[in-house]
Amino acid sequence: MDTQALEARLREANKLEALARFARGVAHDFNNIFTAVTANCDLLLEDTAADDPRRTEVVAIREAVERATDLTRRLFKLGAVQPLESELVDLNDMLRTSEQELSALAGDRIAIATALEPRFSPITADPRELKQVLLNLVLNARDAMTDGGQITIETANVLLDETYAADHRLMPHGHYALLAVTDTGTGMDAEARAHLFEPYFTTRDRSARSGLGLATVYGVVKRSGGFVWVYSEPGLGTSVKIYLPLPRAPGPEPVLPTPAPIVSLRGTETILLVEDEDSVRAVARHVLQRHGYAVIEVARPEDALALADTPQAVDLLLTDIVMPGVGGRALAAQFAARRPGTRVLFMSGYPAAAIGRHQMLERGLAFLQKPFSAAALAQKVREVLG
Predict the structure, then answer these.
(1) Domains of the chain: total
(2) pTM
């Protein structure tokens, strides 16, 4: 396959990935809206007598929202594009078999050097997507070296200790497979690095590139349970390091205790509600207060963390997972470190399966899918509080 055909195929794959990200994002935003409508309808029905003619209109609204919710499920299916076909992959073998393809993509003025770990551990991933990551990284490195240079591709088995993990938030310590692609190109300043993985962001000529390459890399790595770190300075080149978790030996499935039957959905505990969508936060507060809870509501994770250092009692942290800045998963970890024993309930407009694929939620943690009804919220909160 010649270089132009390879680039065309890669651009098409990037467009599909961008379409998937867009579809998932739209469905997530719709689910936030539907949450507010559904729960408010439930509150209205609670306050409306059975023979009140207005109940018919409220029920009709709720049924319409349920049909719209089904449409968002279809959007999430569209956002999946292709299911992951995970298998054991040897990156060293992939690099060796792709050597000619990578050299053709880099061009005559750029040399490709490899430094491969001789006893490199295989990883569990989708080989098609890993190949796409590799091609995008080489193409991005090539575009940073208009006057020629060298691309170095490395593999290694690494153990990230607790000190390293502390400097790389949300990256647990443990054993990883490392894939690093380093170029001798122009490098980037701090502002460019901050936007590097955004779709359509590019430091190159926009007419020559789709601007989706590194956004695609980020999406694939996160779906594979990995992490991406970029090291770059103006004039000193760029190194993109991808850490992919090594497969763990299978062990017995944890036995979870059977929750006790819920007698009442009412409570008197204090709930810290963290949600950046105003309408969702308002209706969730209303539902919880109606069931007897004291509610502290904040729109930003930073405000929630500030409360962790005060005497204010908090029995349950109810937080959205996907929020600007510090996400819900990081918020919960930091809050629990300051307030051990605080119970946590996560909610999101993304389905549980998508949350799991993106490594945003560990198995066994309490989760509530948006849109939720008033009863579903009250029951899940009571279940988590016990």
Answers:
(1) 3
(2) 0.46
